[in-house]
Amino acid sequence: MNFQTPIENIKFIREKQIANFKKLKIRTLGDLLFYFPEQYEDFSDVKEIKELRINESAVIKGKVIDINEEKSLKKRMSVLTILLSDSSASVEVVFFNQGFLKQSIKKGEELILAGKLRFKGRSLYFSPTIFEKADKSELTHLGQVMPVYRETRGLTSRYMRFVLKPLIQRFKDKLPETLPKEVIREHDLMPFKEAFYEIHFPQTMEHAKKARQRFVFEQLFFISLFSLKKKLEIKNEKAQQLEIKNDIIKRLKNSLPYDLTSAQDRVIKEILNDLNIPHPMNRLLQGDVGSGKTVVASAATLNSIRNKTQVVFMAPTEILAKQHFKTVFDVLNRFNVNVGLLTGKEDKYYSYKLKNDTIEISRQKLLEKCKKGEIDVLIGTQALIVKKDKNNKPKVLFKNLGLVIIDEQHRFGVKQRKELCLENNDKIPHLLSMTATPIPRSLALTIWGDLDLSIIDKMPKGRKQVKTSTILPIERQRTYDFILKELKKNNQCFVVCPRIEENEASRLEVKNVKDEYENLKEIFPEFEIEMLHGKMKPKEKEEIMKRFRKKKFQILVSTSVIEVGIDIPDATVILIEGADRFGLAQLHQFRGRVGRSQKQSYCFLATESNSKKTIQRLRAMEKYASGFKLSEIDLKLRGPGDFLGVKQWGFSDYIMEALKDIKMIKKAQKSAKRILPKIKDYPLTLKRLESFEKKVHIE
Ligand code: ADP
Ligand code: MG
């Protein structure tokens, strides 16, 4: 047996459990061994029976003196009573509807049980939640700290312990330590062998904590090594050094109908300085929806073009590509540049020689022009631009590509970038990626440690804040009345249905959207409503968004799939159902769909939860307009699970938890920095890093 052994081949796993394990994403022995407990219950402290107090959880151990079963036909209930006695006293242990236990429990046996002493009617009895026989050589559950695993239907934590105990025993000596000794010493970490056992079956709560810390550190350490290595690799590559053209940037600024914010000015400088280095830029530009990233990208574009290089600008969808085309075209049209647009059907081309107009152009012509260097900036979807032909060569090639800009997509590997260049080019284009997801700095530095960050932390002047309120069930009618008024003013409304996190999520989400659609048709009979969900084809989705923008209908009901960045100027209301199921960062993104014009906009967060904590969390949305502020709150409260891109890394839950621990992140980064230059001295660490790189395949 090795790590890759499928769980089907582990003999003592029951066949009917295989599917359940898979539901928990446990497919191999390795997955199973590293399926760490979610929490622990301390059952190590065995109490004397006479010390028991009513309604207090406790573990007791004693001999079975008597067993008695009573069946009450009327109540269809069986009551099994065991008289248990230790050296201090005896107590009646009562099992309801578990008559079958009569067969396995014998008089004279020793049992160990966790539960509570209860007082009901006039009798005092012990009600157990879990028990096992105490005369085994080794206990699995009780008399120690008990690990509690995340369960799924039919697969209990109890069964997990039963399966894991012998496996851990068997493998704990066979796995290598991958952390360098000096790192273990430096941070006083628990060594692997011990930690691997103790994280599953700790002797004390303290041990459990140390074991967890070790694995958290380990993961953060490898993440840091990974990012640092990427960063070094990129710094060793060559790129074109692009001069900073100050006058042209000044002219650009003067030509805009508004003043740039100080934040925009700052990030433009950061970007231009970075482009002026003969190594590829690898920079992430973060800024809330509406913070004005496109004009920043346009400045970088113009500067690159004036250095006689081409620029490619990629968007996640066609609609957005068209939107960017229009913006870039508007901003740059005084500067004699040729802009191309590559989309599914209509390829467009704008040439300054043709003055203020776009012309349709055949795909082939457009590609030729691009290859000849006659297009200064090509805009399109990533899917189209990286598309390969039969010979696995990209269809789009540039004569002299200097800068790649990519919107809402965090990585575009060095290899991919190189492929877009004509073959004789040994230089790699610079990369500017942009995102509206406000990732807290600490988190960004860990998972995107190879990227440099530029942050637009200010909104343009005069933006109206979206008025946000949390809606409890009793306030619903009022909310609908309000929406009705907005619709009557010729405004539009988004309704987002709750997220569902189950196996059948997408089917149920679609059903939700359909139900909500029917529901809203009754509430707003005089308005047109349409829906959007993940089961639709990209084309269909785009068609609907287009129709929405053209105001062919007033209410759009959707799952959480509505895309980032699309402008629907007349949408003034967004109603988010089941808002408590989303992270604040995501709610903030939804909220960014409205408030894109001078009109006052509104965001309603509907919840049926009456948990104080949940409502408080939602109230943060009412109070704060900054995505960064909200994402920090979210990171503290919910961990990093909701941040775009983090999910793709496939981190386990405990790593998600660890990413909140900024101190630990800093420690891991420091050690990684020191170890990386001499990593060859640590072959096991290197091997582990290489397998980590394979797993996080980004390029
Ligand atoms: P995002 O960062 O979400 O991509 P955009 O770049 O699309 O935002 O900008 C949103 C809108 O704000 C655009 O209409 C743009 O013209 C405008 N804008 C950008 N910068 C400023 C500014 N400094 N002052 C006023 N309006 C601005
Ligand atoms: Mg944008």
Tag the structure with descriptive keywords:
single chain, 699 residues, alpha/beta, 9-stranded mixed beta sheet, 6-stranded mixed beta sheet, 24 helices, 20% strand, globular, binds adenosine-5'-diphosphate, binds magnesium ion
Description:
This protein has 699 residues and is of the alpha/beta class. The chain is built from 24 helices and 23 strands. A 9-stranded mixed beta sheet has the order 13-12-11-14-10-15-16-9-17, with helices on both faces. Strands 2, 3, 4, 5, 6 and 7 form a 6-stranded mixed beta sheet that branches. The protein has a 6-stranded parallel beta sheet with strand order 18-23-22-19-21-20, with helices on both faces. Helix 7 crosses helix 23 (662-675). The longest helix is centred in the N-terminal third of the chain and has 31 residues, at 205-235. It starts with 17 loop residues before the first helix and ends with a helix. The mean pLDDT is 86. Bound molecules: adenosine-5'-diphosphate and magnesium ion (MG). Magnesium ion (MG) is lined by residues 293-294, 407, 565. Adenosine-5'-diphosphate binds at residues 258-261, 264, 287, 289-295, 436, 460, 565.
Mean pLDDT: 86
**Number of helical elements:** 24
Strand order in the largest sheet:
13-12-11-14-10-15-16-9-17
The unique ligands bound to this protein are: adenosine-5'-diphosphate, magnesium ion
Contiguous runs where pLDDT drops below 50 for at least 5 residues: none
Helical proportion, percent range:
25-40%
Q: What fraction of residues sit in β-strands?
A: 15-25%
In total, how many beta strands?
A: 23
Q: How far from one another are the termini?
A: 32 Å
Radius of gyration: 31 Å
- Structure class: alpha/beta
